[in-house]
Write a structure and sequence with these properties.
The strands form 3 sheets. This protein has a 5-stranded antiparallel beta sheet with strand order 1-2-5-4-3. The chain folds into 3 domains: 158 residues, no CATH class; 87 residues; 144 residues, Heat Shock Protein 90. It has 8 helices and 12 strands. By secondary structure, the protein is of the alpha+beta class. Helix 6 runs parallel beside helix 7 and helix 7 runs antiparallel to helix 8. It comes from Rufibacter sediminis.
């Protein structure tokens, strides 16, 4: 998962957790706030009631008959009562209380307050129904939930946008590295950012790739020197041995040893040339500017190697259809197919067969080389492209680089190579060529 996605996911998850915690505690909090507001409103009405009593006199509320005053609004949501009490009684509180109104019990939030006036003590009660308070709190909860959800969504989208802007330098660095097919094609670049971490990362990558490019350049020079230093003495030795072999004065007992030495030198020369070929391909020393007709190339490989197949009594069949052209190196691609078909002949059974089949597919072009040979053990399949890994060499001439060359050329051309095999039944190499551009 990308860093930006992880940051956004973490931000969203943390906000959702906070929202859930708020939702869990919201009813209690809103109810508490609603009660505080209700108490404040009751105290405001208490002050207003005292002001009215002071202005109009308590006689305007108390009648001589009952000596008390009571008033309820239409829906019994609020009430005010005033009555004379004994002088020794003092009540000052705000609490929940049940009151019977019109034969109906209603739960009120009641403010009770005593005061003295004209040598008498009075009790003032102002109440508000708890049902009304709870209804108001539910309304507050609903709007609070909507507000919190909107805030969470807004902050999530804001975090997404901010993280995208913040991580843009990292995205540019990653895309630049993805475009690098070979260290030699890398070009150091500066990035515009005020984040010191990204600047440090970019500078570190530039320095590291510079060291890699320098190492590759030294390797190229080393390979050039090795090719000259190794091939030249090998060729000289080969010439001298050939001269000794053709010299009539050479004792007959030495001829067989000379032939063995020449065979060893020939094998050494092939190994050096194979290693040079692999290194040059890996170092991008070959061009890929030729339009290679893959079906035609398969036909040419079959034509080139058919005599070797006939000599080993192996039937070679070619079944390539469709048209497909790859921008690549004709010589390298020929070597790639030739090595695979040659191995199929070398490790085949007497009167066995090899089939080259090619056809256009949705992903480009697919070419398979299927034989009826000895096959490859399953545990050996992951190692068949490793250098100097000799799986089976009945003729003793294999040096373990043939399939390495095949894999290197395939990778160089962006070809997907896979192998399947059944011991005792045969092996299938599948080349998946990319789409034509």
């Amino acid at each position: 998962m990308r860093l930006q996605s992880k940051l956004a996911l973490f931000s969203a998850a943390s906000k959702i957790i906070i929202l859930l915690l708020l939702v869990a505690g919201l009813p209690w909090l809103v109810n508490k706030v609603a009660l505080i507001n209700a108490d404040a409103r009751l105290m405001q009405k208490e002050d207003k009631m005292y002001q009215i009593i002071e202005e109009q006199g308590i006689e305007s509320f108390l009648t001589s008959e009952s000596g008390a005053y009571g008033s309820y609004n239409l829906f019994r949501e609020e009430f005010i009562s005033l009555e004379e009490i004994s002088s020794g009684k003092v009540i000052n509180s705000i609490e929940n209380s049940l009151r019977k109104v019109d034969n109906q019990v209603v739960n009120y939030r009641v403010l009770s307050s005593t005061f003295d006036l004209g040598g008498k003590r009075y009790l003032l009660e102002i109440g508000r129904s708890l049902a009304t308070i709870h209804n108001n709190s539910k309304t507050l909860q609903t709007y609070a939930l909507y507000f919190l959800a909107a805030v969470v969504l807004l902050t999530v989208f804001t975090d997404l946008a901010f993280s995208k802007v913040l991580l843009r330098p990292l995205t540019l660095i990653i895309k630049r590295l993805q475009r690098v097919e070979h260290p030699s094609t890398f070009t150091p670049q500066k990035i515009k950012t005020s984040t010191s971490d990204f600047l440090y990362l970019n500078n570190t990558i530039n320095a590291m790739m510079g060291q890699i490019q320098e190492a590759f350049q030294k390797e190229k020079e080393f390979i050039g020197n090795v090719s000259h230093e190794l091939l030249t003495p090998v060729s000289i030795l080969q010439t001298r041995l050939e001269n000794l072999l053709s010299d009539p004065d050479t004792p007959e007992s030495m001829l067989e040893k000379l032939v063995d030495n020449l065979r060893t030198l020939h094998r050494l020369k092939n190994i050096i040339q194979a290693l040079l070929l692999i290194s040059r391909i890996e170092n991008e020393q070959y061009v890929r500017n030729e339009a290679v007709d893959i079906p035609q190339l398969a036909e040419e490989v079959a034509e080139e190697i058919k005599e070797r197949a006939e000599a080993r009594e192996v039937e070679l069949k070619v079944d390539v259809t469709g048209e497909y052209t790859l921008a690549g190196n004709q010589s390298l691609l020929f070597t790639m197919l030739f090595n695979v078909v040659n191995n199929a002949i070398k490790y085949n059974k007497p009167e066995g067969s090899i089939c080259l089949r090619g056809q256009p597919v949705a992903a480009g072009y697919e070419l398979t080389v299927k034989d009826t040979g000895v096959g490859i053990q399953e545990e050996q399949l992951p190692h068949i492209f490793s250098r100097f890994k000799r799986l089976h060499a009945p003729d003793g001439e294999s040096h373990g680089l043939g399939l390495t060359i095949v894999k290197t050329i395939a990778t160089f051309h962006g070809i997907d190579l896979s192998v399947s095999s059944v011991p005792g039944e045969g092996t299938t190499f599948t080349f998946q060529f990319p789409k034509e551009v």
